[in-house]
Amino acid sequence: MSWQPLSQDPYLDEQLNQQLQYNDLNADSHQRLRRINRSFRTEVSKLIVSQIPEGSTVLDLGCGDASLLSEVKASLAVGIDIAPISLPIVNEQNRSPATIFQSAIERFDFKTLNTTFDYVVLSGVLEHVYDVLGVFHKIRESADSKTRVIVVTYSRLWQPVFRLAEKFKLKAALPTQNWVPVSELENLGIQSGFELVKTQRSILIPFYVPLVSRWVNKWLAPLPIIRQLTFARLTVLRPRNFAQEAQSVSVVIAARNESGNIKQLLDRMPRLAENQEIVFVEGGSTDDTWLTIKEEARRRTETNYPFAIKSLQQLGKGKGDAVRVGFDVAEGDIFIILDADLSVPPEELARFINCLKSGNAEFANGSRLVYGMEGGAMRFLNLLGNRFFGSLFSFLLGQQVRDTLCGTKALTRANYQRIVDNRDKFGDFDPFGDFDLLFGAAALNLKIRDQPVHYKARTYGETNISRFRHGWLLLRMSWVAARKIKFI
Protein backbone atom coordinates (compact mmCIF):
# COMPACT_ATOMS: atom_id res chain seq x y z
CA MET A 1 0.00 0.00 0.00
CA SER A 2 1.58 3.28 -1.14
CA TRP A 3 0.90 6.56 0.67
CA GLN A 4 2.88 9.65 1.60
CA PRO A 5 2.92 10.72 5.28
CA LEU A 6 2.76 14.42 6.10
CA SER A 7 5.38 14.19 8.84
CA GLN A 8 7.37 17.12 7.39
CA ASP A 9 4.37 19.33 6.56
CA PRO A 10 4.83 22.78 8.20
CA TYR A 11 1.03 23.11 8.58
CA LEU A 12 1.03 19.94 10.65
CA ASP A 13 3.66 21.49 12.92
CA GLU A 14 1.55 24.61 13.21
CA GLN A 15 -1.60 22.71 14.21
CA LEU A 16 0.23 20.52 16.71
CA ASN A 17 1.76 23.60 18.32
CA GLN A 18 -1.70 25.19 18.53
CA GLN A 19 -3.02 22.10 20.27
CA LEU A 20 -0.18 22.11 22.79
CA GLN A 21 -0.67 25.82 23.53
CA TYR A 22 -4.40 25.30 23.86
CA ASN A 23 -3.89 22.46 26.35
CA ASP A 24 -1.43 24.52 28.41
CA LEU A 25 -3.77 27.52 28.58
CA ASN A 26 -6.84 25.46 29.49
CA ALA A 27 -5.38 22.85 31.86
CA ASP A 28 -7.42 23.99 34.87
CA SER A 29 -10.69 24.34 32.97
CA HIS A 30 -10.20 20.89 31.40
CA GLN A 31 -10.16 19.26 34.82
CA ARG A 32 -13.29 21.20 35.83
CA LEU A 33 -15.10 20.20 32.63
CA ARG A 34 -14.14 16.57 33.12
CA ARG A 35 -16.08 16.65 36.36
CA ILE A 36 -19.06 18.47 34.82
CA ASN A 37 -19.24 16.13 31.82
CA ARG A 38 -18.59 12.93 33.78
CA SER A 39 -22.02 11.50 32.88
CA PHE A 40 -21.46 11.97 29.15
CA ARG A 41 -17.95 10.55 29.28
CA THR A 42 -19.29 7.54 31.20
CA GLU A 43 -21.92 6.90 28.51
CA VAL A 44 -19.31 7.03 25.74
CA SER A 45 -16.94 4.74 27.63
CA LYS A 46 -19.74 2.26 28.30
CA LEU A 47 -20.55 2.18 24.58
CA ILE A 48 -16.92 1.51 23.63
CA VAL A 49 -16.27 -1.05 26.37
CA SER A 50 -19.33 -3.02 25.25
CA GLN A 51 -17.52 -3.69 21.96
CA ILE A 52 -14.29 -5.02 23.49
CA PRO A 53 -14.18 -8.60 24.84
CA GLU A 54 -12.30 -9.24 28.04
CA GLY A 55 -8.64 -10.12 27.49
CA SER A 56 -8.27 -8.11 24.26
CA THR A 57 -5.28 -5.91 23.48
CA VAL A 58 -6.30 -2.25 23.21
CA LEU A 59 -4.63 0.86 21.81
CA ASP A 60 -6.38 4.15 22.67
CA LEU A 61 -5.35 7.03 20.40
CA GLY A 62 -5.99 10.35 22.10
CA CYS A 63 -6.39 8.63 25.44
CA GLY A 64 -6.69 11.85 27.50
CA ASP A 65 -6.72 10.88 31.17
CA ALA A 66 -6.79 7.17 30.20
CA SER A 67 -10.15 6.64 31.91
CA LEU A 68 -11.23 4.31 29.09
CA LEU A 69 -8.14 2.15 29.50
CA SER A 70 -8.94 1.84 33.19
CA GLU A 71 -12.38 0.41 32.35
CA VAL A 72 -11.58 -2.16 29.67
CA LYS A 73 -10.45 -5.54 30.92
CA ALA A 74 -7.52 -5.72 28.54
CA SER A 75 -4.54 -8.06 28.53
CA LEU A 76 -2.49 -5.17 27.11
CA ALA A 77 -3.55 -1.50 27.25
CA VAL A 78 -1.59 1.29 25.53
CA GLY A 79 -2.53 4.96 25.19
CA ILE A 80 -1.11 7.80 23.10
CA ASP A 81 -1.88 11.47 23.73
CA ILE A 82 -0.33 14.77 22.71
CA ALA A 83 -1.29 16.63 25.89
CA PRO A 84 1.40 16.62 28.62
CA ILE A 85 -1.16 17.66 31.25
CA SER A 86 -2.96 14.33 30.84
CA LEU A 87 0.02 12.24 31.87
CA PRO A 88 0.14 13.03 35.61
CA ILE A 89 -3.60 12.32 35.76
CA VAL A 90 -2.93 8.96 34.15
CA ASN A 91 -0.30 8.08 36.73
CA GLU A 92 -2.65 8.95 39.60
CA GLN A 93 -5.95 7.57 38.32
CA ASN A 94 -5.34 4.79 35.83
CA ARG A 95 -6.01 1.40 37.44
CA SER A 96 -5.24 -0.79 34.42
CA PRO A 97 -1.78 -2.07 33.47
CA ALA A 98 -1.56 0.62 30.80
CA THR A 99 1.47 2.12 29.08
CA ILE A 100 1.06 5.76 28.06
CA PHE A 101 3.08 7.58 25.40
CA GLN A 102 3.18 11.36 25.04
CA SER A 103 3.06 12.05 21.31
CA ALA A 104 0.95 13.45 18.51
CA ILE A 105 -0.74 10.54 16.75
CA GLU A 106 0.61 11.72 13.38
CA ARG A 107 4.16 11.69 14.77
CA PHE A 108 4.04 8.36 16.56
CA ASP A 109 5.75 5.36 14.97
CA PHE A 110 3.40 2.45 15.68
CA LYS A 111 6.08 -0.05 14.67
CA THR A 112 7.99 0.76 17.86
CA LEU A 113 5.23 -0.99 19.82
CA ASN A 114 6.32 -4.31 18.27
CA THR A 115 2.81 -5.73 18.38
CA THR A 116 -0.60 -5.58 16.75
CA PHE A 117 -3.75 -4.75 18.66
CA ASP A 118 -7.18 -6.36 18.71
CA TYR A 119 -8.83 -2.97 19.12
CA VAL A 120 -7.68 0.53 18.20
CA VAL A 121 -9.91 3.27 19.64
CA LEU A 122 -10.31 6.82 18.35
CA SER A 123 -12.97 8.47 20.50
CA GLY A 124 -13.68 12.11 19.67
CA VAL A 125 -10.23 12.32 18.10
CA LEU A 126 -10.70 12.51 14.33
CA GLU A 127 -12.26 15.97 14.66
CA HIS A 128 -8.84 17.30 15.73
CA VAL A 129 -6.39 15.16 13.75
CA TYR A 130 -4.64 17.10 10.98
CA ASP A 131 -4.20 14.13 8.60
CA VAL A 132 -7.06 11.69 9.14
CA LEU A 133 -6.26 9.58 6.09
CA GLY A 134 -2.62 9.37 7.11
CA VAL A 135 -3.60 8.14 10.59
CA PHE A 136 -5.76 5.40 9.08
CA HIS A 137 -2.83 4.33 6.89
CA LYS A 138 -0.55 4.15 9.94
CA ILE A 139 -3.08 2.00 11.78
CA ARG A 140 -3.52 -0.28 8.77
CA GLU A 141 0.22 -0.86 8.44
CA SER A 142 0.37 -2.18 12.01
CA ALA A 143 -2.90 -4.16 11.93
CA ASP A 144 -3.57 -7.85 11.46
CA SER A 145 -6.72 -9.72 10.42
CA LYS A 146 -8.20 -9.56 13.95
CA THR A 147 -7.72 -5.81 14.41
CA ARG A 148 -10.87 -3.73 14.78
CA VAL A 149 -10.87 0.07 14.73
CA ILE A 150 -13.53 1.72 16.88
CA VAL A 151 -14.26 5.34 15.96
CA VAL A 152 -16.60 7.57 17.96
CA THR A 153 -17.73 10.76 16.24
CA TYR A 154 -20.43 13.28 17.11
CA SER A 155 -23.45 14.45 15.16
CA ARG A 156 -23.43 17.95 13.66
CA LEU A 157 -27.15 18.06 14.38
CA TRP A 158 -26.18 19.02 17.92
CA GLN A 159 -23.81 21.82 16.82
CA PRO A 160 -26.02 24.67 18.13
CA VAL A 161 -26.13 22.95 21.53
CA PHE A 162 -22.33 22.66 21.51
CA ARG A 163 -21.96 26.36 20.79
CA LEU A 164 -24.34 27.21 23.61
CA ALA A 165 -22.45 24.95 26.02
CA GLU A 166 -19.17 26.62 25.02
CA LYS A 167 -20.69 30.05 25.62
CA PHE A 168 -21.67 29.10 29.18
CA LYS A 169 -18.30 27.42 29.83
CA LEU A 170 -19.84 23.95 30.04
CA LYS A 171 -17.79 22.65 27.13
CA ALA A 172 -14.29 23.45 25.94
CA ALA A 173 -14.14 25.68 22.84
CA LEU A 174 -11.79 23.50 20.83
CA PRO A 175 -9.42 24.55 18.02
CA THR A 176 -10.02 23.73 14.34
CA GLN A 177 -12.34 20.76 13.92
CA ASN A 178 -12.82 18.31 11.05
CA TRP A 179 -16.18 17.05 9.82
CA VAL A 180 -16.03 13.25 9.51
CA PRO A 181 -19.52 11.72 9.13
CA VAL A 182 -19.99 7.96 8.84
CA SER A 183 -20.15 8.13 5.04
CA GLU A 184 -16.75 9.85 5.01
CA LEU A 185 -15.37 7.30 7.46
CA GLU A 186 -16.34 4.56 5.04
CA ASN A 187 -14.67 6.45 2.21
CA LEU A 188 -11.43 7.02 4.15
CA GLY A 189 -11.48 3.41 5.31
CA ILE A 190 -11.68 2.08 1.78
CA GLN A 191 -8.76 4.27 0.71
CA SER A 192 -6.60 3.06 3.60
CA GLY A 193 -7.48 -0.64 3.43
CA PHE A 194 -10.44 -0.91 5.84
CA GLU A 195 -14.11 -1.73 5.43
CA LEU A 196 -17.07 -0.85 7.60
CA VAL A 197 -18.36 -3.62 9.87
CA LYS A 198 -21.16 -1.76 11.61
CA THR A 199 -22.36 1.58 12.90
CA GLN A 200 -24.21 2.12 16.16
CA ARG A 201 -25.86 5.34 17.28
CA SER A 202 -26.16 6.24 20.93
CA ILE A 203 -26.75 8.94 23.58
CA LEU A 204 -29.87 11.03 23.19
CA ILE A 205 -29.29 13.09 26.36
CA PRO A 206 -25.56 13.98 26.72
CA PHE A 207 -25.90 15.42 30.23
CA TYR A 208 -27.07 13.98 33.53
CA VAL A 209 -30.77 14.13 34.38
CA PRO A 210 -31.62 12.05 37.46
CA LEU A 211 -33.77 8.98 36.67
CA VAL A 212 -34.17 10.09 33.05
CA SER A 213 -30.95 10.34 31.04
CA ARG A 214 -29.70 6.81 31.71
CA TRP A 215 -33.06 5.23 30.88
CA VAL A 216 -33.51 7.30 27.71
CA ASN A 217 -29.96 6.67 26.49
CA LYS A 218 -30.25 2.92 27.07
CA TRP A 219 -33.75 2.12 25.82
CA LEU A 220 -34.85 4.91 23.48
CA ALA A 221 -31.66 6.11 21.78
CA PRO A 222 -31.02 2.86 19.79
CA LEU A 223 -34.57 2.67 18.37
CA PRO A 224 -35.27 3.28 14.66
CA ILE A 225 -36.11 6.89 13.75
CA ILE A 226 -35.23 8.13 17.26
CA ARG A 227 -31.60 7.11 16.76
CA GLN A 228 -31.32 9.68 13.96
CA LEU A 229 -31.38 12.32 16.70
CA THR A 230 -28.61 10.80 18.80
CA PHE A 231 -25.39 12.52 19.71
CA ALA A 232 -22.71 9.82 19.31
CA ARG A 233 -21.87 7.54 16.39
CA LEU A 234 -19.77 4.44 17.00
CA THR A 235 -18.30 2.91 13.84
CA VAL A 236 -16.32 -0.33 13.67
CA LEU A 237 -13.88 -0.93 10.81
CA ARG A 238 -11.86 -4.03 9.94
CA PRO A 239 -8.82 -4.49 7.66
CA ARG A 240 -9.58 -5.64 4.12
CA ASN A 241 -7.56 -7.99 1.90
CA PHE A 242 -6.61 -10.49 4.59
CA ALA A 243 -7.14 -13.83 2.89
CA GLN A 244 -7.61 -16.70 5.33
CA GLU A 245 -5.41 -19.72 4.91
CA ALA A 246 -7.37 -22.97 5.02
CA GLN A 247 -5.93 -26.32 4.06
CA SER A 248 -8.68 -28.41 5.63
CA VAL A 249 -12.46 -28.31 6.06
CA SER A 250 -14.83 -30.04 8.48
CA VAL A 251 -18.46 -30.44 7.39
CA VAL A 252 -20.62 -30.95 10.48
CA ILE A 253 -24.02 -32.56 9.88
CA ALA A 254 -26.62 -32.88 12.63
CA ALA A 255 -28.93 -35.76 11.69
CA ARG A 256 -32.18 -36.61 13.45
CA ASN A 257 -34.67 -38.86 11.62
CA GLU A 258 -32.80 -38.41 8.34
CA SER A 259 -32.08 -42.03 7.42
CA GLY A 260 -33.24 -41.62 3.82
CA ASN A 261 -30.84 -38.71 3.15
CA ILE A 262 -27.52 -40.09 4.41
CA LYS A 263 -26.48 -41.93 1.25
CA GLN A 264 -27.27 -38.94 -0.97
CA LEU A 265 -25.35 -36.62 1.34
CA LEU A 266 -22.22 -38.71 1.03
CA ASP A 267 -22.66 -39.29 -2.71
CA ARG A 268 -23.09 -35.59 -3.48
CA MET A 269 -20.51 -34.13 -1.09
CA PRO A 270 -18.08 -31.95 -3.13
CA ARG A 271 -14.36 -31.60 -2.48
CA LEU A 272 -13.87 -28.37 -0.56
CA ALA A 273 -10.23 -28.62 0.50
CA GLU A 274 -7.16 -30.78 0.19
CA ASN A 275 -8.03 -32.37 3.53
CA GLN A 276 -11.70 -32.81 4.31
CA GLU A 277 -13.79 -34.63 6.87
CA ILE A 278 -17.51 -35.18 7.40
CA VAL A 279 -18.71 -35.24 10.99
CA PHE A 280 -22.15 -36.79 11.58
CA VAL A 281 -23.82 -36.13 14.93
CA GLU A 282 -26.99 -38.13 15.52
CA GLY A 283 -29.38 -37.84 18.45
CA GLY A 284 -32.98 -38.68 19.30
CA SER A 285 -33.90 -40.40 16.04
CA THR A 286 -36.93 -42.70 15.95
CA ASP A 287 -35.89 -44.21 12.61
CA ASP A 288 -32.64 -46.03 11.77
CA THR A 289 -30.56 -42.89 11.09
CA TRP A 290 -27.71 -43.97 13.39
CA LEU A 291 -27.45 -47.43 11.86
CA THR A 292 -27.52 -45.95 8.37
CA ILE A 293 -24.72 -43.52 9.19
CA LYS A 294 -22.55 -46.31 10.59
CA GLU A 295 -23.24 -48.60 7.63
CA GLU A 296 -22.61 -45.93 4.99
CA ALA A 297 -19.40 -44.86 6.74
CA ARG A 298 -18.18 -48.47 6.89
CA ARG A 299 -19.01 -49.10 3.25
CA ARG A 300 -17.25 -45.97 2.02
CA THR A 301 -14.19 -46.65 4.14
CA GLU A 302 -13.85 -49.96 2.34
CA THR A 303 -14.16 -48.31 -1.10
CA ASN A 304 -11.56 -45.53 -0.66
CA TYR A 305 -14.03 -42.71 -0.13
CA PRO A 306 -12.04 -39.44 -0.51
CA PHE A 307 -13.17 -37.89 2.79
CA ALA A 308 -12.75 -39.03 6.38
CA ILE A 309 -16.02 -39.75 8.17
CA LYS A 310 -16.63 -39.35 11.90
CA SER A 311 -19.84 -40.56 13.55
CA LEU A 312 -21.03 -39.50 17.01
CA GLN A 313 -24.19 -39.69 19.07
CA GLN A 314 -24.98 -36.65 21.20
CA LEU A 315 -25.88 -37.03 24.85
CA GLY A 316 -27.75 -33.72 24.95
CA LYS A 317 -30.70 -32.48 22.93
CA GLY A 318 -31.19 -30.09 20.04
CA LYS A 319 -29.26 -29.11 16.97
CA GLY A 320 -27.24 -26.55 18.90
CA ASP A 321 -25.86 -29.24 21.15
CA ALA A 322 -25.18 -31.48 18.15
CA VAL A 323 -23.24 -28.73 16.36
CA ARG A 324 -21.08 -28.10 19.44
CA VAL A 325 -20.39 -31.81 19.81
CA GLY A 326 -19.35 -31.95 16.15
CA PHE A 327 -17.15 -28.86 16.42
CA ASP A 328 -15.45 -30.31 19.51
CA VAL A 329 -14.08 -33.23 17.48
CA ALA A 330 -13.68 -31.44 14.13
CA GLU A 331 -10.10 -30.90 12.98
CA GLY A 332 -10.47 -28.64 9.93
CA ASP A 333 -9.26 -25.06 9.54
CA ILE A 334 -12.80 -24.15 8.47
CA PHE A 335 -16.01 -25.42 10.08
CA ILE A 336 -19.18 -25.54 7.99
CA ILE A 337 -22.63 -26.71 9.08
CA LEU A 338 -24.93 -28.54 6.66
CA ASP A 339 -28.45 -29.72 7.43
CA ALA A 340 -29.03 -33.40 6.73
CA ASP A 341 -32.37 -32.78 5.00
CA LEU A 342 -30.66 -31.79 1.70
CA SER A 343 -32.79 -28.64 1.50
CA VAL A 344 -29.55 -26.74 0.82
CA PRO A 345 -27.66 -28.56 -1.96
CA PRO A 346 -24.22 -29.77 -0.79
CA GLU A 347 -22.85 -28.65 -4.16
CA GLU A 348 -23.16 -25.01 -2.98
CA LEU A 349 -20.86 -25.38 0.03
CA ALA A 350 -17.80 -24.33 -1.95
CA ARG A 351 -19.15 -20.78 -2.13
CA PHE A 352 -19.06 -20.51 1.67
CA ILE A 353 -15.46 -21.72 1.76
CA ASN A 354 -14.42 -19.27 -0.96
CA CYS A 355 -16.16 -16.41 0.86
CA LEU A 356 -14.01 -17.07 3.94
CA LYS A 357 -10.74 -17.86 2.17
CA SER A 358 -10.93 -14.68 0.07
CA GLY A 359 -11.32 -12.56 3.19
CA ASN A 360 -14.71 -11.21 2.05
CA ALA A 361 -16.24 -12.40 5.32
CA GLU A 362 -15.30 -13.95 8.64
CA PHE A 363 -18.70 -15.56 9.12
CA ALA A 364 -20.61 -16.80 6.06
CA ASN A 365 -24.33 -17.06 6.77
CA GLY A 366 -26.63 -18.92 4.40
CA SER A 367 -29.62 -16.99 3.07
CA ARG A 368 -32.58 -18.78 1.50
CA LEU A 369 -34.44 -15.54 0.78
CA VAL A 370 -32.65 -14.51 -2.41
CA TYR A 371 -33.31 -17.22 -4.99
CA GLY A 372 -36.75 -18.58 -5.82
CA MET A 373 -37.71 -21.53 -3.61
CA GLU A 374 -38.83 -24.88 -4.78
CA GLY A 375 -42.56 -25.48 -4.19
CA GLY A 376 -43.22 -26.76 -0.67
CA ALA A 377 -39.71 -25.95 0.58
CA MET A 378 -40.91 -23.43 3.17
CA ARG A 379 -44.39 -22.93 4.59
CA PHE A 380 -45.87 -19.43 4.39
CA LEU A 381 -45.79 -18.75 8.14
CA ASN A 382 -42.19 -19.94 8.28
CA LEU A 383 -41.33 -17.53 5.46
CA LEU A 384 -42.94 -14.62 7.32
CA GLY A 385 -41.14 -15.63 10.51
CA ASN A 386 -37.78 -15.78 8.74
CA ARG A 387 -38.28 -12.34 7.23
CA PHE A 388 -39.31 -10.90 10.59
CA PHE A 389 -36.35 -12.36 12.47
CA GLY A 390 -34.00 -11.36 9.66
CA SER A 391 -35.06 -7.73 10.05
CA LEU A 392 -34.92 -7.95 13.84
CA PHE A 393 -31.44 -9.45 13.88
CA SER A 394 -30.11 -6.98 11.31
CA PHE A 395 -31.21 -4.25 13.73
CA LEU A 396 -29.78 -5.97 16.81
CA LEU A 397 -26.45 -7.03 15.31
CA GLY A 398 -25.84 -3.91 13.24
CA GLN A 399 -25.05 -6.04 10.19
CA GLN A 400 -27.31 -7.41 7.48
CA VAL A 401 -28.54 -10.91 8.29
CA ARG A 402 -31.56 -11.65 6.12
CA ASP A 403 -32.02 -15.30 7.12
CA THR A 404 -31.17 -16.22 10.70
CA LEU A 405 -32.41 -19.82 10.58
CA CYS A 406 -30.69 -21.16 7.50
CA GLY A 407 -28.78 -24.17 8.78
CA THR A 408 -25.74 -23.60 6.58
CA LYS A 409 -23.06 -21.44 8.17
CA ALA A 410 -19.27 -21.34 7.97
CA LEU A 411 -16.42 -19.84 9.99
CA THR A 412 -12.81 -20.61 10.76
CA ARG A 413 -11.80 -22.85 13.63
CA ALA A 414 -9.88 -19.91 15.16
CA ASN A 415 -12.91 -17.62 15.16
CA TYR A 416 -15.14 -20.35 16.53
CA GLN A 417 -12.73 -20.76 19.43
CA ARG A 418 -12.94 -17.01 20.07
CA ILE A 419 -16.74 -17.31 20.20
CA VAL A 420 -16.41 -20.17 22.69
CA ASP A 421 -14.03 -18.10 24.85
CA ASN A 422 -16.56 -15.24 24.87
CA ARG A 423 -19.68 -17.40 25.27
CA ASP A 424 -20.31 -16.31 28.87
CA LYS A 425 -21.53 -12.98 27.48
CA PHE A 426 -24.81 -14.61 26.38
CA GLY A 427 -24.92 -17.90 28.25
CA ASP A 428 -25.92 -21.35 27.06
CA PHE A 429 -29.47 -20.70 25.91
CA ASP A 430 -29.70 -21.62 22.21
CA PRO A 431 -31.06 -25.07 21.25
CA PHE A 432 -30.64 -24.34 17.53
CA GLY A 433 -27.01 -23.27 17.41
CA ASP A 434 -27.60 -20.55 14.82
CA PHE A 435 -28.01 -17.74 17.34
CA ASP A 436 -25.13 -18.77 19.57
CA LEU A 437 -22.88 -18.39 16.53
CA LEU A 438 -24.49 -15.21 15.15
CA PHE A 439 -24.52 -13.45 18.52
CA GLY A 440 -20.98 -14.57 19.22
CA ALA A 441 -19.71 -13.38 15.85
CA ALA A 442 -21.43 -10.01 16.25
CA ALA A 443 -20.04 -9.54 19.77
CA LEU A 444 -16.53 -10.02 18.36
CA ASN A 445 -17.29 -7.62 15.48
CA LEU A 446 -16.59 -10.33 12.92
CA LYS A 447 -17.71 -9.43 9.43
CA ILE A 448 -20.91 -11.38 8.75
CA ARG A 449 -21.90 -11.76 5.13
CA ASP A 450 -24.97 -13.48 3.71
CA GLN A 451 -24.28 -16.23 1.20
CA PRO A 452 -27.35 -16.90 -1.00
CA VAL A 453 -28.35 -20.55 -1.39
CA HIS A 454 -31.07 -22.37 -3.30
CA TYR A 455 -33.68 -23.93 -1.05
CA LYS A 456 -35.21 -27.26 -2.01
CA ALA A 457 -38.17 -29.24 -0.71
CA ARG A 458 -37.57 -32.28 1.45
CA THR A 459 -37.73 -35.66 -0.23
CA TYR A 460 -37.56 -37.64 3.01
CA GLY A 461 -38.84 -37.11 6.55
CA GLU A 462 -40.45 -34.09 8.19
CA THR A 463 -39.16 -30.81 9.57
CA ASN A 464 -38.01 -30.75 13.21
CA ILE A 465 -39.10 -27.10 13.62
CA SER A 466 -42.24 -26.22 15.59
CA ARG A 467 -43.39 -22.86 14.26
CA PHE A 468 -45.08 -21.47 17.36
CA ARG A 469 -43.10 -23.08 20.17
CA HIS A 470 -39.77 -22.35 18.53
CA GLY A 471 -40.96 -18.90 17.42
CA TRP A 472 -41.58 -17.96 21.06
CA LEU A 473 -38.15 -19.29 21.97
CA LEU A 474 -36.58 -17.14 19.21
CA LEU A 475 -38.24 -14.04 20.66
CA ARG A 476 -36.81 -14.83 24.08
CA MET A 477 -33.32 -15.26 22.61
CA SER A 478 -33.72 -11.98 20.71
CA TRP A 479 -34.45 -10.25 24.01
CA VAL A 480 -31.22 -11.65 25.48
CA ALA A 481 -29.27 -10.36 22.49
CA ALA A 482 -30.97 -6.98 22.65
CA ARG A 483 -29.86 -6.42 26.24
CA LYS A 484 -26.32 -7.65 25.59
CA ILE A 485 -25.62 -6.02 22.23
CA LYS A 486 -27.97 -3.18 21.38
CA PHE A 487 -29.40 -1.64 24.55
CA ILE A 488 -26.20 -0.98 26.49
Residue stretches low in confidence (pLDDT < 50, at least 5 long) are: 88-95
Q: What distance separates the N and C termini?
A: 37 Å
CATH class category label of the largest domain: Alpha Beta
Rg computed from alpha carbons, rounded to a whole number of angstroms: 26 Å
Count of distinct strands: 14
The main pleated sheet reads as:
7 strands, mixed
* Topology-level CATH name of the largest domain: Spore Coat Polysaccharide Biosynthesis Protein SpsA, Chain A
What does it look like?
39% of the residues lie in helices and 17% in strands. By secondary structure, it is α/β, with parallel strands linked by helices. It folds into 2 domains: 10-239, Rossmann fold, CATH 3.40.50.150; 248-486, Spore Coat Polysaccharide Biosynthesis Protein SpsA, Chain A, CATH 3.90.550.10. The strands form 2 sheets. It has a 7-stranded mixed beta sheet, with helices on both faces. Helix 6 links the parallel strand 4 (119-123) and strand 5 (148-154). Helix 14 packs parallel to helix 17 and helix 15 packs across helix 16 (434-443). The protein starts with 9 loop residues before the first helix and ends with a helix. 41% of the residues are buried. Residues 88-95 have low confidence and may be disordered.
What layout of secondary structure does this protein have?
Elements (H helix, E strand, L loop, with lengths): L9 H16 L1 H10 L1 H12 L7 E5 L5 H5 L4 E6 L4 H8 L4 E5 L16 E5 L8 H10 L6 E7 L4 H9 L14 H11 L1 E9 L10 H8 L11 E8 L8 E8 L6 H7 L6 E8 L6 H14 L5 E6 L4 H12 L4 E4 L11 H9 L5 E5 L12 H18 L11 E4 H9 L12 H10 L4 E5 L14 H20 L2
Parallel strand pairs: 1-2, 1-4, 2-3, 4-5, 8-9, 8-11, 9-10, 12-14
Antiparallel strand pairs: 5-7, 6-7, 11-13, 12-13
Helix pairs in contact: 6-8, 14-17, 15-16
